[in-house]
From TrEMBL:
Residues 565-587 are annotated as: Disordered. It is found in: Endomembrane system. It comes from Gymnodraco acuticeps (Antarctic dragonfish). This is AP-4 complex subunit beta-1. GO terms for biological process: intracellular protein transport; vesicle-mediated transport. GO terms for cellular component: clathrin adaptor complex; endomembrane system. PANTHER family: ADAPTOR COMPLEX SUBUNIT BETA FAMILY MEMBER. Keywords: Membrane, Protein transport, Transport.
Length: 826
């Protein structure tokens, strides 16, 4: 048909639809209807043909019916009055002997989406629920959901809801799944479909009959059900076992999400389920679909938070392909950093070095950042690669390398000499602001070791007027001031010129205010300036920088099989150290002996009995056994972040060094205790065992060094709930450090507590006994000294608010945990 205007086209089509010769020829009539739909798809307004198309639907030709119904559903909202003419034809088709015609009529009757027609649609839908053909029942079930969506404030007939519940046992699996979807929509305000034990077992037994999306829908609905008994739980898990290793990733993910929800009280079973899905996840990582690969990688990152060694043996599956998009390559590199260990570090670093010269700058910078992450555990090898990359003199590579070195030297100060040597001459290649800021930070901290630092700064200061980045200017101010403190003769003139520019000429208020601050600091003298610019540095060992404990599955289980893992950007987590739990292959078999031994309700009694059995005769040790009689419980909530832990730990150190009156008053509300515990091979326990043992009694390990590394440290925290006689529970926070230096330990135990007058009491064991002080486990240490082969671990505990009995009880629990670990290893 030649192109005509909208009115001409409509007129031509109306003439053809009304032509009796065309109407008498079914094929020509169908082709005319097809021309109407073709014009509609091209954007021509053919709504004026609505009455003619209503007449065209009265035919026995199913193809023509489908074409007409598409037109009517598209223009029904524009012609609500004429749409009543369609209802009679549709209701008549609902009684047609052909099930295809009946299902087609029901579907399009609900697709008209007109509230005025609902009363005419309800009766055919009700009859369709009892139709003998499954295809009609499928459409009728979803039709009720459409009617409810059309009138959400109206109440659905209870008989219809009961009929839908009955159809959950329909022999057709699609009808069953459609009933679930319809009930979820209709009963949304009531919480969705009610899931009880019979419905749950019926759905699980028929799960294999459903298609992929049907299985996912069933598994999603079943997440609301909670088994009543343990036997029922394991029956459900047995039915889900086959779906856990399904070749379809959506089914596997939905099953694992349900598995984790059901096993929230059985962490060992949940971890074993994570082991089972390793193969399906690896298969999904090789899917032809890029979207599927990205989704699988994001969910693998979730699993590695609880099972760091899950994919350790399959690290080669995460090597990047040449044709893969950049976002998948970057995700794979993040996973590779988590899988590094002594056996594969050389091959992974070799692979990452190849990505550093990728044509895509984002991929190259991500590879350099990944090498820096591995460098926190394998600094020598990574620094050799990073130094070699500086020789390429590529702008984006040099910028990424300098930023990576800045991050690396902060947590690995032993790398500073190598980094200072590598910085010589790289300022010429840096062009972006982030790279220049990183270089200036390194010069500020290690400027006295870099011979060319003043000359490099002079280049920056001479070009400060043309500098556009505010961050670079502020970093330049700080670097010049810090370098002035250690090399004043070389930087005095440069500092004066820079301060004059920042105060007199700079238009940005942040830079100007910082310049004024430093200018006034210089007027106050060198000592005051040093206090501002060279304050105490954070101890890297206090953060999660030397080992990250595995997270409980419950922390991320609710986000599994959702969009949350995809919405999260690159996870800024600190890579593990050599030998940390991330490098230990998980054994799903739980240590039942350890679990039975570490029972919180009995642990204090066991420790007291062991003290008496070992001949502890000290009066303070006997007092400990009696003082822990009130109930004591430990809790991991609220969770303490590494930053909060570091702040509290350093704050407690300030209380023992500062003499300010306010801080001394604060000290009265806190307690500090130092104790030495002996036991064979405590410091050589694997981090996995140590963390598992601590979590059994609700003690969270926040950071730890690898085994066989000296000094060996573990940082931990917990919350105590201590009930005094007749009083409400008293809650306290306890943070602690375990320290093993490896030296021959002949030290005498020291106890520090906040005394009534705020003075710190400290001394040898003999002095405390003579003065009637409170020494904890002194008899235990005396008996431990008889065995020279045992190793001594220093335990430092800090508590706020102060509760001596709770602190003693916690020390008793911690000592029993460590002795249990020692005996297990022995």
């Amino acid at each position: 048909m030649p192109y005509l205007g909208s009115e001409d086209t409509e007129r031509e089509l109306r003439r053809a639809l009304c032509n009796p010769h065309i109407q008498s020829d079914p094929l020509r009539y169908r082709n005319t209807v097809l021309k109407v739909l073709r014009a509609m798809s091209q954007g021509v307004d053919v709504s004026g043909l609505f009455s003619e198309m209503v007449k065209a639907c009265a035919t026995a030709d199913i193809v023509q019916k489908k074409l007409v119904y598409v037109f009517l559903c598209s223009y029904a909202a524009l012609n609500p009055e004429l749409s009543l003419l369609v209802i009679n034809t549709l209701r008549k088709d609902c009684q047609d002997p052909n099930p295809m015609v009946r299902s087609l009529a029901l579907r399009n009757m609900t697709n008209l989406r007109l509230p005025s027609l609902v009363e005419y649609v309800e009766q055919p839908l009700t009859a369709g629920l009892r139709d003998r053909a499954a295809c009609v029942r499928r459409v009728a079930v979803l039709g009720w959901a459409k009617i409810h969506n059309l009138q959400p404030n109206s109440e659905t007939d209870a008989a219809v809801v009961n009929e839908l519940y009955t159809l959950l046992r329909d022999p057709d699996p699609v009808v069953m799944v459609n009933c679930l979807r319809a009930l979820e929509e209709i009963l949304k305000e009531e919480g969705g479909v009610a899931i009880n034990k019979p419905i749950t077992h019926h759905l699980l037994n028929r799960l294999k009959e459903c298609d992929v999306w049907g299985q996912c829908e069933v598994l999603r609905v079943l997440q609301r059900y909670r088994p009543q008994t343990e036997d029922e739980l394991f029956d459900i898990l047995s039915l889900l076992d086959a779906s856990l290793v399904s070749p379809h990733p959506p089914v596997m993910a939905a099953t694992l999400s349900l598995f984790l929800g059901l096993c929230s009280a059985l962490p060992a079973v949940g971890l074993a389920a994570l082991e089972r899905v390793r193969a399906p996840l690896l298969t999904a990582c090789g899917s032809p679909s890029r979207e599927m690969r990205l989704t699988a990688l994001c969910h693998i990152q979730l699993l590695l938070r609880s099972l760091p060694g899950l994919m350790g043996a399959h690290y080669k599956r995460f090597f990047c392909g040449y044709a893969e998009p950049a976002y998948i390559k970057q995700r794979k590199m993040q996973v590779l950093v988590e899988l590094v260990n002594d056996d594969n570090v050389a091959m992974i670093l070799d692979e990452l070095r190849g990505y550093c010269t990728d044509v895509n700058t984002d991929t190259a910078q991500a590879a350099i950042s990944a090498i820096g992450g591995i460098g926190r555990s394998y600094s020598d090898r990574c620094l050799e690669i990073l130094t070699g990359l500086l020789g390429l003199k590529q702008e984006h590579i040099t910028s990424a390398v300098v930023q990576t070195m800045r991050d690396l030297v902060w947590v690995c100060p032993q790398c500073s000499d190598t980094v200072c040597e590598a910085l010589e001459g790289c300022e010429d290649t840096l062009q972006d602001s982030q790279g220049r800021q990183a270089l200036l930070w390194l010069l500020a901290v290690y400027g006295e070791r870099v011979s060319s630092a003043p000359y490099t700064l002079e280049v920056f200061i001479d070009g400060v007027r043309s500098e556009t980045s505010v961050g670079v200017k502020m970093e330049l101010l700080t670097t010049t001031m810090r370098l002035f403190l250690c090399r004043p003769a070389e930087t005095q003139d440069m500092l004066g010129r820079l301060l004059h520019y920042c105060i007199e000429e700079e238009t940005d208020m942040c830079v100007r205010d910082q310049g004024l601050l430093y200018y006034r600091c210089c007027h106050r003298g060198i000592e005051e300036t040093q206090k501002v610019l060279q304050g105490r540095r954070s101890d890297p060992s206090l953060g999660v920088l030397i080992g990250r404990p595995a997270e409980p599955v419950s922390q991320w289980a609710c986000s599994f099989n959702t969009l949350d893992p995809l919405k999260q950007g690159p996870v800024e987590t600190e890579p593990p150290s050599r030998g940390s739990p991330e490098h230990v292959t998980f054994d799903p078999k739980p240590n039942t002996d350890l679990s039975e031994t570490l029972d919180c309700s009995q642990i204090v009694k066991l420790h007291s009995a062991s003290d008496r059995a070992s001949g502890c005769s000290d009066s303070s040790a006997e007092g400990l056994a009696s003082s822990v009689a009130p109930p004591l419980s430990l809790s991991l909530t609220p969770v303490l972040s590494p930053e909060e832990f570091e702040r509290l730990w350093l704050q407690r150190q300030d209380l023992h060094t500062e003499q300010d009156a306010e801080k001394r008053e604060e000290e009265e509300d806190c307690a500090c205790l130092v104790e030495h515990i002996r036991g064979p091979a405590i410091a050589h326990c694997s981090p996995q065992s140590l963390q598992a043992a601590m979590q059994l009694v609700n003690i969270q390990t926040l950071a730890f060094t690898p085994p066989h590394t000296l000094p060996w440290r573990v940082y931990l925290f917990t919350h105590t709930q201590h009930t005094h006689s007749g009083n409400a529970p008293h809650s306290t926070l306890i943070v602690g450090e375990l320290l093993y230096t490896g030296e021959a330990n002949q030290r005498v135990g020291v106890v520090k507590t906040g005394s009534d007058d705020g003075d710190l009491v400290e001394g040898s064991k003999e002095e405390h006994v003579r003065e009637g002080g409170d020494l904890i486990s002194a008899g235990l240490r005396e008996s431990a000294r008889e065995n020279g082969e045992e190793e001594e671990v220093k335990v430092t505990l800090k508590q706020q608010p102060r509760d001596d009995s709770a602190l003693k009880g916690f020390l008793s629990i911690l000592t029993t945990v460590l002795h249990t670990l020692s005996s297990e290893r022995a």
